[in-house]
Design brief:
This protein has one domain (2-211). Helices cover 79% and strands 0% of the residues. It is built from nine helices and no strands. The longest helix has 34 residues, at 94-127.
């Protein structure tokens, strides 16, 4: 029971760090497009909570996370307001926020795969879904939870989504989702396994950032 409580507390902390970083990144993106205060805070909130919202809607998982925990909206609001006033410093601390974003990515991916697998497993028991199908759904939900907020941010800011052109991002979310699904399948879901998976995903993302790892890029010539 102590392990369970510790895991819940740790993931709440990681989640808050993640949505704070994502909210600030949304604030900077919106500010560069000369949006007004409402636009900036809206983009910040969508960036921070969009991934979980898309996941929950696709899975029919209600109430939505930010409705169940409205304090998360308060966190994104204050993070956005703070980012507005310290924008110059945030830009200077670009690498720090890449690290915070990496932590948010792997945390979101872990939680997304957790919810996706458990809902799919329920379908296995009741509607005849296959175990392989549960793995696929869990990994897809890990990716969706990890990247959807950033994709929505870039689309609303009229940019090509960063996840489609930057270092390994969605792949990191998929790796985290796959590893977590394995632990769920073998029923070894505990604090140690969770932190190990988070650590692997975090290190993989940092390596991708600093060593410029990315998927092959396709160019068409006329």
């Amino acid at each position: 029971m102590a392990f369970l409580v510790d895991k819940i507390i740790i993931f709440q902390i990681l989640f808050v760090i993640g949505i704070t970083a994502e909210s600030m990144s949304g604030t900077i993106s919106a500010g560069r497009k000369n949006m007004d205060l409402f636009g900036i805070i809206t983009i910040a909130t969508i960036t921070a909570l969009g991934g979980g919202t898309v996941r929950d809607i696709l899975l029919g998982y209600y109430p939505l996370t930010w409705i169940l925990y409205p304090e998360y909206i308060v966190v994104t609001f204050f993070a956005s307001v703070v980012a507005i006033f310290v924008a110059k410093h945030i830009i200077r601390l670009h690498k720090f926020f890449l690290i915070a974003d990496a932590l948010g990515l792997v945390t979101f991916a872990y939680l997304g795969s957790d919810i996706g697998y458990k809902i799919a497993l329920h379908a296995v028991n009741n509607d005849g879904f296959t175990v392989i199908g549960s793995f696929i759904i869990a990994i897809i939900m890990a990716i969706i939870t990890g990247i959807s907020g950033g994709v929505l941010r870039d689309i609303l800011c009229n940019d090509v989504p960063l996840v489609f052109q930057a270092e390994l991002y969605a792949i990191v979310a998929a790796v985290v989702g796959f590893l977590h699904t394995i632990t769920l399948y073998f029923q070894i879901d505990n604090l140690i396994s969770a932190l190990t998976i988070i650590g692997i995903g975090f290190c993989l993302r940092l390596c991708a950032i600093y060593k410029n790892w990315h998927l092959p890029r396709i160019k068409y010539f006329s």
